[in-house]
């Protein structure tokens, strides 16, 4: 290359890198507005996450379209590496290595990936513009990137062709595409000298495109190319079911803005690829409620870019900083979330939506902006320790009528402390299942006791609606009560209680092992302490509760129990980590119906179960689901065809010795 | 505007009510006393007025049951001062006696506006708001659903009537208003705020002045109505059953 | 106050030129009590241009009719001052008020200004050896108190519906005594500036005294007029369980229950409602509940006062017809 060419390349490179650095520095400044949060422990696990999610593209591949992204991604990696070598060689010609495309295997890799990427882009464009999948943003940025990557590939492949024509070195082995193109070009009458200058033009075009892209990247949605690896690396390694405490929330500035979030929370919008995966699995979004997790993340970015300059300067705009909640994010959106974790399970860049939502809910609660029913539930809980507003003395009323009285674990030692939870104690439909569970435990000779009026609601949902002070009060009271009791393990039928007892109470000093009744039943059957006396000849499907499955990874214990009972288990299309939420979680069960809902999540789920061939029973393992699904079978007209059964009821039925003979 | 809000504690109906051995009082051992619902609305109404027009809100409570909790909550919600009247007999007073005591205190502090609930579930020998107005000789309107203060020296209230009707009434200050409900439900205060109020704010205490107890009534007994366990099933042909329903409605004065 | 007569006074409530139905309940009971005390029953009618209303008060021995422009609209202060002046001149034994918006205010104020005892929310009034013994309802009906009043003047507020209104109706023309206001009313510090009609828009079911509630048993939207007609006859409104709302047959403002309204009407008629806890939560504090359900084991019968185990379409038309036939033409 001529000296003037080298100079030009230097200028172009410096301008591009300058623009790039300028923007990145600004964005980092925005992140630094947030509060501190330590995300550096456990480097090994973090690297593993990067390997799986970034290099392996694991979550992307859960949707078929992920294959396209996989191809584009790896093509991009190969090209980016080659580009860096090219650029340095161009800037510093004395470097002792040839241009990458002059190395046979590298050239082959570039050509192969060039074709793969072009195919990927063609596929992506087809999907984006012709198939138009729901909830995929049709942004200008997306078109630009497809065009750009496409041009890079085309320029590079053409360059290879010109190279072959110019040098006359045809190596079909290393340059299959180039050689093919070259024969076309020669056929078209291209002279080697012209080819040589065309090749140089292509090279320049390639360089300028890439450098231009580099400068453009941090200003566009393709920031995710840059931020997502960090987002994955800086993922939350604490248990999924543990929310961060709100200690610093109280003193945050009013109105809510970037300063109330941690820097990692502010990173979410930068990492977002606007792929719509979260929206497609979100029960709030798919049922028609105001919430779109994708848009919410995006709106936080908008807010950050709007409020950021003022916050960085420390001078409000017209007397106050732009508001986030009530500004770009509405209260309706925030209350619609069931905290089901589907979005976080799906998000390929490991964005953390729920902490954002809870953070903003906390802000609403601080201002007293809660709907009337939620307010009733919160007031009742702070006064009576249960959201039903019942006298604490009636908490253990469900035990009335059991043949064997239930121990008071505050007075008598027991192996298991049964933390019953609000719904299992007070809800009439759930109470039947609670009694069945008690009878099964007696039958298996398990030593257990309950706290009677000493139990308060665990606070899982209280915490998730954002009433952190009340949650802490409940946790402290429950832990103080349990510390006075003698037992080995906690058992509960309620996945919500299970989650908070297991994952959140340790931070408040309650460090007991916790088991879900499905796990214990599984163990008891295994140890033959529970012996099914007959096979239940039913065809059933099983609904994974969010707080048992996605949150705590308990998928197989309930299924093993069902099979041991002789049930013929048929899976719904969305099962295990893809299970669709029933709509009760995150405090939604206390709130008014979200505006705009066309089909409630529970109804959608019931319909999913009802169409399974020959399935007559939907098995649940969460007290709230009994109410949710019994209601939904009525409203969808499946009352006749689909029975809602708690696992405990089935276990009781199967382990009841037959009275009369049976062939 | 100086607003005084009187908060009374009433039995919590979530707990089973028990009659004391004397037969003429509730058994306070098992009883829980919490803020009366319409007093809660009166407080909300006071805070709304303060937010709109400025002024000072003083919450006043007779020391019984969760009075302290209610006063700290009032402070957390935005009240400026909280006063607890101590020296109340355990079983409390009747409404007339309580009004006499509170009346003596309010006569001294002479607020511009006194707000309290128009009724409480344990009212038997009177209603606090009206009784206070009578004792203090102040103008009075009760059963209000909103109180506004668009001009100086007076308030504009809406008093509810049956069938969704209401009257708009102008009341000269100082006055006593018996609140049925505030224009918006009492706001939620997060537990953290109340805990903070407990740490940073103080409730002033005041010995209840002694006043002559009003006379004239003797409580013979308190009792619980017979529980209607399950519906009484009507029987007969549809005609007969329909007629029985009509008779029940007539006996209850429901047929117009 | 040591000397009082044996008369029973009833404060007559009226709104927009009509005596409120509850007043007849007071008159009916007042008639009985006055007889037992050996006194007269006096209806106190205060207002402006209210004399025509006196003709409906024939049960009373006499009607004290006080007319003054200053009494045109009810204010506790104005009407209270008049009542007090009258009672000081000729003290009755009993003053009966409705436990209503106006009655409560007036009774509380009059008791305090005159220094006479008051018992509120009475659902029973009896005379034992010249003593007036009343039963007051407290704690949302969970507690009753039996109270004996001394030999002097006492004021009572009476729960609407505690006594039948028929006994307060009469064709007799009462003796009307027309009086000017015994006190000047210029200095009254409360002034009604206007009357507000119910807000336009849908019915507020939380305020309706009678609710006819329909559940899935109503089957089709076409059947709703059956319930609406009944509601019209009883001066109430139609509300529903969630499935009916979900169908879009009635607006969401009519839903009773967990995710709807909490209602406490005087009368709740549940038609074809099973009684799911989510529904019951919204209506369990109704004063009187009657349930009609074809399933005799429906849980709604656990919360209802009276149950009818029958097809609602058999019972409803007859009920409507009976009520229409009974609709009194006078007041
Ligand atoms: C979170 C949540 C919130 C909810 N909120 C509410 C709420 O606010 N309000 C509410 O109402 N529900 C609510 N529900 C729904 C509730 O669980 C019940 O599904 C609902 O109340 C049932 O309504 P229903 O009684 O009309 O219908 P059903 O339960 O189907 O009962 C119909 C009844 O009609 C009777 N019947 C049928 N035909 C006739 C006839 N010809 N004559 C007489 N009787 C007949 C039947 O015997 C049956 O008992 C909620 C549920 C959930 C899970
Ligand atoms: S947690 Fe569930 S409901 Fe909430 S935003 Fe994510 S997917 Fe939607
Ligand atoms: S938050 Fe995650 S799943 Fe949702 S659009 Fe962004 S990248 Fe996709």
Explain how this protein is built.
The complex is a heterotrimer of chains A (663), B (256) and C (331). Chain A is built from 26 helices and 9 strands. Chain A is mostly helical and 663 residues long. Chain A has 3 domains: 38-232, no CATH class; 239-366, Orthogonal Bundle (Fumarate Reductase Iron-sulfur Protein, Chain B, domain 2), CATH 1.10.1060; 374-654, no CATH class. In chain A, the strands form 2 sheets. In chain A, strands 1-3-2-4-5 form a 5-stranded parallel beta sheet. Chain A has a 4-stranded parallel beta sheet with strand order 7-6-8-9, with helices on both faces. In chain A, strand 8 (617-620), helix 25 (623-635) and strand 9 form a beta-alpha-beta unit. The termini of chain A are far apart. In chain A, 48% of the residues are buried. Chain B has a single domain, classed as 3-Layer(aba) Sandwich (Rossmann fold), CATH 3.40.50.620. In chain B, helix 2 crosses helix 5 (191-200) and helix 3 packs across helix 4. The radius of gyration of chain B is 21 Å and the shape is globular. The termini of chain B are far apart. The radius of gyration of chain C is 22 Å and the shape is elongated. In chain C, a hairpin with a 2-residue loop joins strand 7 and strand 8. By secondary structure, chain C is an alpha/beta fold. Chain C is built from 8 helices and 17 strands. Chain C starts with 7 loop residues before the first strand and ends in a 5-residue tail after the last helix. A 9-stranded mixed beta sheet of chain C has the order 9-8-7-10-6-1-4-5-11. Chain C has a 5-stranded parallel beta sheet with strand order 14-13-15-16-17. In chain C, strands 2-3 form a two-stranded antiparallel sheet. Chains in contact: A-B, A-C, B-C. At the B-C interface, helix 4, strand 7, strand 8, strand 9 and strand 12 of B face helix 3, strand 7, strand 8, strand 9 and strand 12 of C. Residues 281-284, 291, 293, 337-343, 353-354 of chain A line the site of one iron/sulfur cluster.
